[in-house]
Amino acid sequence: MRRHYVTATFQPKRVDDLQGSAEQFVGYRGLWFFAWVIEDGPYEGMLAYVPHDHKVNVGWVPDCDLADVEYDSPWSARDVAVYRLRRAIFEAVRPVLDWLAKRLPA
Questions:
Q1: Domain edges within the chain
Q2: What is the Cα–Cα distance from 83 to 1, expressed in whole angstroms?
Q3: How open is the CA angle 73-87-56, to the nearest 5 degrees?
Q4: What is the pLDDT of residues 47-75, one digit of tens each?
Q5: Edge-first strand listing for the sheet containing 29-37
Q6: What is the CB neighbour count within 10 angstroms for residue 12?
Q7: How far apart are CA 62 and CA 94, in angstroms?
Q8: Number of helices and strands (H, E) in the chain?
Q9: pTM for the complete prediction?
């Protein structure tokens, strides 16, 4: 599996939901690793990143909170765009899949 990472600056869109000491790291520029796809809440469908530097105690951040992103990994901006398109297509057909799952025998 390819490891997705970027060099980016932590610039949160909102500061009311920052956890712990994250506020002191606003403006931090460094290496961020892709961790998972956020499945619920206000950032549902976005990519979650964690800082490479363990001293940067921000937990995880949604990709919308990273600015000036440089793709350093085998993934490129195109890969991320394709991923988001696939996710949007899945979300568009999800109601139909849920409807079918309720009507098909187990």
A1: 5-103
A2: 15
A3: 45
A4: 899 998 888 888 899 999 999 988 766 66
A5: 61-62, 47-51, 29-37, 5-10, 66-71
A6: 19
A7: 23
A8: 1, 5
A9: 0.66
